[in-house]
Amino acid sequence: MWMLWLMLLLLSSLAAASSSNVKPGSGCQEKCGHVTVPYPFGIDNSMCAMNKNFFLNCSRGDSPPKLMIGDLEVFNLSIENGSMIASISTAHRCYDGLGNRNSDYNDPYVKLGNRPLRFSDTRNKLTAIGCDTSAYMGDPNGSFWTGCISMCTNESAKLNESSCSGIGCCQTPLPKSLKSLNLTLRSVYDHEDMGKFMPCDYAILADETFNIAEFQASEDKSSSNVTIEWVVREKKCPDDPNSKVYGCGDYTTCYYSENGQGYRCKCKPGFQGNPYLGCVDIDECLDKEKYHCEGKCKNTIGSYTCDCPIGMYGDDVTVPYPFGIDDHMCAMNKNFFLNCSRRDSPLKLMIGELEVFNLSIEIGSMIASIFTSRRCYDGLGKRSSHFNNPSVSLGSRPLRFSDTRNKLTAIGCDTLAYMGDPDGSFWSGCISICTNESAKLNESSCSGIGCCQTPLPKSLKSLELTLRSVHNHEDMGEFMPCDYALLADETFNIAEFRASDDKSSSNVTI
Ligand SMILES: *[C@@H]1O[C@H](CO)[C@@H](O)[C@H](O)[C@H]1NC(C)=O
Ligand SMILES: *[C@@H]1O[C@H](CO)[C@@H](O)[C@H](O)[C@H]1NC(C)=O
Ligand SMILES: *[C@@H]1O[C@H](CO)[C@@H](O)[C@H](O)[C@H]1NC(C)=O
Ligand SMILES: *[C@@H]1O[C@H](CO)[C@@H](O)[C@H](O)[C@H]1NC(C)=O
Ligand SMILES: *[C@@H]1O[C@H](CO)[C@@H](O)[C@H](O)[C@H]1NC(C)=O
Ligand SMILES: *[C@@H]1O[C@H](CO)[C@@H](O)[C@H](O)[C@H]1NC(C)=O
Ligand SMILES: *[C@@H]1O[C@H](CO)[C@@H](O)[C@H](O)[C@H]1NC(C)=O
Ligand SMILES: *[C@@H]1O[C@H](CO)[C@@H](O)[C@H](O)[C@H]1NC(C)=O
Ligand SMILES: *[C@@H]1O[C@H](CO)[C@@H](O)[C@H](O)[C@H]1NC(C)=O
Ligand SMILES: *[C@@H]1O[C@H](CO)[C@@H](O)[C@H](O)[C@H]1NC(C)=O
Ligand SMILES: *[C@@H]1O[C@H](CO)[C@@H](O)[C@H](O)[C@H]1NC(C)=O
Ligand SMILES: *[C@@H]1O[C@H](CO)[C@@H](O)[C@H](O)[C@H]1NC(C)=O
């Protein structure tokens, strides 16, 4: 009998674990008041947190209960962003309207302690509100101070605005990796000209949710909300991406935060969940919106496959026997088995990494696209980083580039194009030299000016395309910024190629 009860208990705790963000089966509370406390954070029992740095206080005496980290109240904890929202004290300094500072002032000292926490440098700003006001933030050690100054008259100050516009308000960003700071205020003229208008100045560290008008209207101006970044440990990720990382669960990767000065974990692509508890595979087939598939969707660990249903063929491309798709039985043998990728729209017929456009049984050929080689210059004779030397292989299948239908074509005015065997056993190429004036690139076929061509050797299975320049395009100005080397069949048209937006591929006959 009690076995059954135990099993029920186990089952219910497992069910709870799948939807919850706390350690499964631990009995840990997931909420403190309205705030969700996901693992690695924990409350009530230190076993619920990854370690003491993530153990928070939930003051259940308050109504509603308050989640506290040290002496800061926490309103939100985010696993995705590695952040939390907490409130800290503002600085204020008040004047009596006659230029006398009264005793009502506060210069807070905010410290995040020894935990691996830092103020976010991207989401927080120091904001000063006042008309004769300089606000500073500094290291408690006095090792740095930074701030901003706002001067205005009681007439010009428009403090109704929701964001800091510069009148009666100034803002300055935070340095990276701040762990603790002092906020303080100064006044140049002691508010002598301000009358009763704006009795107090404020220095506020707050994130982008801060709204001046709301702040001005609020009764309690003593605190503001900041975004704080947390990390698992203030260490770098290990060099070996496969090694086990402290704090990271299954199917996760480690990443480093400059501001946080340490690492956090995230799910590997294709996985989801809380990376500190371990990620689980995404069943992509259940979310057709996000993971496109019009064919037979099959979930795999970390990914999915999408195959064409038998009888359906790729867009416009007929797949005649001996070729086949979808099922090995449809092809003569594995050499003729192609992939129809229904993840793409329009559909793509693929052989290895090449897209296939036409299969001809009569002449034993197919048309496929391969990458072009490109090298670009800045007009002053300097090569830019914009270049590509593709290497194309037809793999172990019985395929060869057609020697009669394809040519190596170079386009450019100071251009040497080569093709070679990737193992270096041969190189061949052509040279095109011209001036920016003589180049007539409007023509549809390669006429020799600004363009050269050379035939292919027989039986090529794989090759590398590459480009060189004799004078680094020095005399070309901005004319023809890029040279191209491409392998293309007789359908290739220079004018079309020059006019097209995408010059990254060309069609060859195989
Ligand atoms: C925390 O922030 C996220 C995103 O801004 C929000 O969806 C969530 O409701 C917030 N949680 C709490 C407890 O405020
Ligand atoms: C929780 O609160 C108790 C009592 O106020 C205090 O002694 C303890 O240090 C606090 N722990 C944390 C993690 O803030
Ligand atoms: C995480 O960061 C994004 C982008 O900055 C933000 O829109 C989102 O609200 C943040 N989520 C939480 C829970 O803080
Ligand atoms: C003060 O400065 C020293 C060295 O610059 C640093 O090691 C120490 O952590 C600082 N103390 C605080 C409270 O910031
Ligand atoms: C920062 O504030 C603390 C506490 O008020 C004080 O002891 C320290 O001297 C202040 N540091 C600076 C540089 O003013
Ligand atoms: C602020 O707005 C209110 C109403 O929107 C307006 O009456 C008042 O004059 C405004 N104050 C300033 C300083 O612009
Ligand atoms: C602006 O300040 C002057 C004193 O310099 C005072 O006479 C005047 O009433 C103030 N105006 C407002 C709108 O507070
Ligand atoms: C801080 O954020 C919490 C949750 O969004 C909100 O209830 C609170 O009023 C904010 N505090 C301040 C000072 O803006
Ligand atoms: C088809 O695609 C799968 C997964 O992307 C790959 O493993 C397989 O080698 C491909 N087959 C062909 C014939 O290209
Ligand atoms: C394939 O090639 C044949 C013969 O050149 C041609 O008639 C047909 O239109 C081509 N089909 C496609 C989809 O390009
Ligand atoms: C290209 O053709 C257009 C119109 O056909 C002509 O105006 C232009 O001068 C030609 N450019 C070159 C470089 O021949
Ligand atoms: C040709 O290049 C020269 C620099 O050598 C430059 O001054 C001229 O403007 C260029 N002409 C064209 C049409 O780009």
TrEMBL record:
This is Uncharacterized protein. It comes from Citrus sinensis.
